[in-house]
Design a protein that fits this description.
- This protein is α+β, with helices and mostly antiparallel strands.
- The chain contains 19 helices and 30 strands.
- Strands 21, 22, 23, 24, 25, 26, 27, 28, 29 and 30 form a ten-stranded mixed sheet that branches. The protein has a seven-stranded mixed sheet with strand order 3-4-1-7-8-2-9, covered by helices on one side.
- Strand 10 (about 545) and strand 11 (about 555) form a beta hairpin.
- The protein starts with 19 loop residues before the first helix and ends in a 5-residue tail after the last strand.
- The relative contact order is 0.10.
Length: about 850
């Protein structure tokens, strides 16, 4: 006989007979399980695969524990806390719980589908994932099977947490370190000054005769005249986290080890730590034990906020479909601070904060000031001339306006269709290398002033090189870019040495530590893979082997390496001259650069339009300011991809470049010399170049004028007013977000997006203390914004820079930004990361 009683609710989490506390406990358990599968475990998997991320950032054991437990426990707790507010309305609480469940199920489904169909469109993947999430929520509500499965899986969050903290390589950073004591008796007394540069290819130092290009790198050439220069030196790894330990231990890298003292207890610092005072500044490693090296730590709140920002970027790159992840910062080029929003906390900048463009030069200067006399080891590993390329030879900096043209964010490789863009990137890298040359000069001058240079053992080298070749990787070694990645500068000045020598033998980076020990009359208490170079050339090496970031090591015969190295060096000479040409005026453009536009026939190209990024900055230039908009970028219409263009500043051609197409628009970029600007307002114009030699003609593409909006009050309302009209600020409206504010000496850069009612802003204007700082058009694709606001908001992203008057401070609270939409304006909201 059929029962007349209603069926029991099949979802245990919503049983009517259970107390609210028990219901909430089960809800928490089920959301925690689903959250751990949808978010925590994928994030832990990425981080466990590259724990050097934490090492480079300088994160402590406590930071990692807070992160792991916070990621696992806090989100489901917050969700259930929201449900708890509705315990008096059970139906609403059940509905909210199902909504949370469905969203987490959709997030999990999105990853599964995206992994199964890589490259799929978000317009298909997201609706499908949401549909699957809704179906999962319905099954959770209407059946016993799904809730029971989640209850059975309740240990999952703890299991994922334990695997991450105790059974992955991250455990080496969490578990207590063993005591390290490998000190040796050091016979020598000479001070040691060891500068380890990053991402510097030794072949870029060569002139057409294979010598140091003394016009381009005068201070490095001066070092070469008083030291042993190993012209054919090579690295043994293309990855910093392996190359640096190899240099400091004399042992070839082991891919399973982290660059930490517990994995490499026998290293330079533990060798000398008993007899030498240590002045050590590591960037991407932690090889010096804490009892020997005092590390300056940022406040824990600052570290955790920075870590949270970086992990948000990593997580979004892992979770989002490919087309939505393209607008995110790259995470495979620097060691952290992917949004370049790091702050400086006095002294030498630690860990990944050196990746902040404004910090690196200050780190070098601080290191010079901190060098000690006597039996001291003064060691600095610095991210120069490592990407990002923002320094000019003068020490001034320019702001980047978005991704590096021609470089793929996901693979860190140069696209096959990148044309001349790798050469432009190499020009920027060489300009930054010239700045490094100036830092080396200041180091040598300071040592001489203090009477230390002659007495010191001085080592200047790099961990690995960098490649600029269309269709090849920038940092992953291959047969075709082997010489660019393998070649490194290596200079060793013996104590008392005053006459340099050029060594042609195949020295490799693991030879450095045995040589240093030999020069200090110290017997190494462990075997090395390198040999001392003190009393003669390096041993014969028929084959060079470079450990690759991914895949097997790459091998090349020593003669084959020399041939390839010389070909690349000769190519550089053809492109950039042998010091007889400025990097701003390469040999191929001798007939154009430096000449007045009036010297050529000029016509106007109909329909062409130029939009300069940060156009406002050209209205008020101080040519000697620390921040100078020397990297001119923008977009053009009426111009095809790969057309030759000329950039004229104040009527004189200062740079040539080629247009390129990215994300559906034609853009351009070029570096102009600081001397091309005059104080005050400057004219920047773009021309298409036709013909060659004596037949060159120019087509004017127009001058991108700034509108110069003033922020005023009119009839009790805020108004943005320019010569062309005015836009009324709509009260309480949100026109987008100001996401990153990055301070430079003398200037700031700002990044965000501006969209209102499914339309990207016509213009973005930024004010500091009520005065116009910078303005420009949003030109960057933001697929994440388009997802929420529609296709009309896609090109809503912007990155602007502005110069600050001398003595001006720029706290974020005094910065206001607005998007202009015809005759309306809406203020951009500042995110918490803007400080």
């Amino acid at each position: 006989m059929a029962s007349s009683q209603p069926p029991a609710d099949p979802a245990p989490a919503e049983g009517l007979r259970r107390s609210p506390a028990r219901i909430l406990a089960l809800n928490w358990l089920h959301l925690a399980v689903l959250w751990s599968f949808a978010f925590a475990q994928p994030l832990f998997k990425v981080l466990a695969g590259d724990p050097a991320f934490f090492v480079a950032r300088g994160d402590t054991r406590g930071d990692i524990l807070i992160l792991a437990f916070g990621v696992t426990l806090v989100p489901p707790t917050v969700l259930v806390a929201a449900e708890a507010l509705l315990t008096r309305v059970p139906a609403a609480m059940r509905a909210l719980h199902l909504a949370f469940f469905g969203l987490l199920a959709a997030l999990f489904a999105l990853q599964v589908i995206a992994d199964a169909a890589p490259g799929g469109s978000s317009f298909i993947l997201i609706p499908l994932s949401l549909a699957l999430g809704a179906a999962a929520a319905a099954a959770y509500r209407l059946t016993r099977v799904v809730p029971s499965m989640l209850t059975v899986l309740s240990p999952a969050p703890v299991v994922f947490l334990a695997i991450f903290l105790l059974f992955s390589n991250v455990s080496k950073l969490v578990l207590p370190e063993k005591d390290v004591n490998v000190q040796a008796s050091v016979g020598g007394r000479s001070p040691v000054v060891f500068v380890l540069l990053d991402e510097f290819s030794g072949l870029n130092l060569l002139d057409r005769d294979g010598n140091i290009n003394s016009r381009r790198f005068p201070h490095i050439a001066a070092l070469e005249r008083t030291s042993h220069w190993y012209r054919n030196a090579t690295t043994i790894s293309d990855q910093t986290s392996r190359a640096v330990p190899a240099i400091l231990t004399g042992k070839r890298p082991n891919g399973k080890k982290l660059p930490i003292v517990s994995d490499y207890p026998k290293n330079l610092f533990t060798l000398l730590g008993g007899d030498y005072r240590l002045n050590v500044h590591e960037t991407a490693s932690h090889l010096c034990p804490d009892d020997l090296c005092h590390r300056q730590q940022e406040p824990i709140g600052t570290r955790l906020r920075s870590l949270g920002r970086d992990l948000r970027t990593v997580a979004l790159r892992r979770l989002l479909p490919d087309d939505l992840g393209r607008g995110l910062p790259a995470v495979n080029r620097t060691f952290g601070n992917f949004q370049s929003s790091a702050k400086i906390y006095g002294g030498v900048v630690k860990g990944a904060d050196q990746a902040a463009p404004q910090a690196r030069g200050q780190s070098f200067e601080s290191f010079i000031r901190g060098i000690k006399d006597g039996r001291t080891l003064n060691f600095l590993h610095i991210l120069l001339p490592h990407i990002p390329w923002t320094y000019l030879p003068t020490g001034q900096q320019y702001a980047e306006n978005g991704p590096i043209p021609g470089l793929d964010d996901d693979t860190d490789g140069w696209r096959k269709d990148s044309g001349s863009l790798p050469q432009q990137a190499e020009q920027r890298y060489l300009l930054q290398a010239q700045y490094v040359d100036g830092l080396i000069g200041r180091l040598m001058a300071d040592l001489r002033r203090r009477g230390l240079f002659d007495r010191s053992l001085v080592i200047v080298m790099a961990d690995h090189g960098v490649a600029f070749r269309a269709g090849d990787y920038r940092r992953r070694v291959t047969q075709s870019n082997f010489a660019q990645l393998a070649s490194i500068p290596l200079f060793i000045k013996h104590p008392g040495e005053r006459q340099g020598r050029v060594e042609e033998s195949p020295a490799i980076s693991v030879d450095v530590l045995p040589t240093l020990a030999d020069l200090l009359d110290t017997k190494l208490p462990w075997a090395t893979d390198g040999s001392s170079l003190k009393d003669g050339p390096a041993p014969s090496r028929d084959t060079l082997r470079v450990n690759a970031t991914k895949g097997p090591e790459v091998q090349r015969s020593f003669p084959g390496y020399i041939r390839q190295r010389n070909l690349f060096a000769a190519q550089d000479v053809r492109l950039f001259g042998s010091g007889d040409h400025s990097l701003f005026a390469p040999p191929a453009e001798a007939g154009l650069i430096g000449r007045s536009t009036s010297a050529f026939p000029v016509t106007r190209r109909p329909g062409a339009k130029v939009r300069l990024d940060s156009s406002q900055s050209f209205r008020s230039i101080n040519p000697t300011a620390p921040l100078l908009q020397a990297f001119v970028t923008g977009q053009v219409s009426g111009v095809g991809a790969d057309e030759k263009l000329a950039v004229a500043v104040n009527g004189r051609i200062e740079a040539t470049t080629h247009s390129f197409r990215e994300t559906g628009q034609v853009s351009f970029s070029a570096v102009v010399p600081p001397a091309s600007f005059r104080k005050g307002a400057n004219s920047v114009r773009l021309f298409a170049v036709r013909g060659s030699g004596a037949q060159v003609a120019l087509e004017s593409l127009g001058e991108a004028a700034s509108l110069g909006y003033d922020l005023i009050r009119e009839d009790g309302r805020e108004v943005l007013k320019s010569k062309g009209g005015k836009a009324v600020v709509v009260p309480n409206s949100v026109g987008g977000y100001l996401e990153v504010l990055n301070r430079f000496p003398g200037g700031i850069t700002i990044r965000g997006w501006a969209a209102l009612e499914s339309h990207a802003a016509d213009r973005v204007v930024v004010y500091l203390n009520g005065r116009l700082l910078t303005e420009g058009e949003p030109t960057k694709d933001r697929d994440d914004v388009a997802k929420d606001f529609g296709g009309g908001a896609r090109k809503s992203g912007f990155q602007l820079s502005g110069n600050l008057p001398a003595g001006t401070k720029a706290p974020a609270a005094n910065v206001r930004a607005f998007g202009i939409y015809g005759k309306r304006a809406a203020e951009l909201t500042k995110l918490r990361s803007v400080k």
